[in-house]
Amino acid sequence: MLDFLTEIFDFCETLIEVVPDLKKRSAGKGIKKEYDRENTRPVLKCSICNGEQVAGFKDIHTGKFEEVMLIRGEKDLKEFMEAYGVDTVSKEY
Question: What global pTM score does this model have?
Fold first, then answer.
């Protein structure tokens, strides 16, 4: 019985160490994402009515916009730019 409890305790200690690391990975931090750099460009679509902003990529040939994430503030925009390795994002209204 004591061996069983020791194994459970060891398992719990491992979870305590691993779970915060998994949360960081699931949040997308440190993970570089790719996009088609030849056929799309990063765009921030901004609503003139309500101020909503959506980051994504616009196909330079068709004009089709693919939404990636809602931008609620500077923190979200910075996260988007870092995740995709983007230096500048053009705004479209």
Answer: 0.65
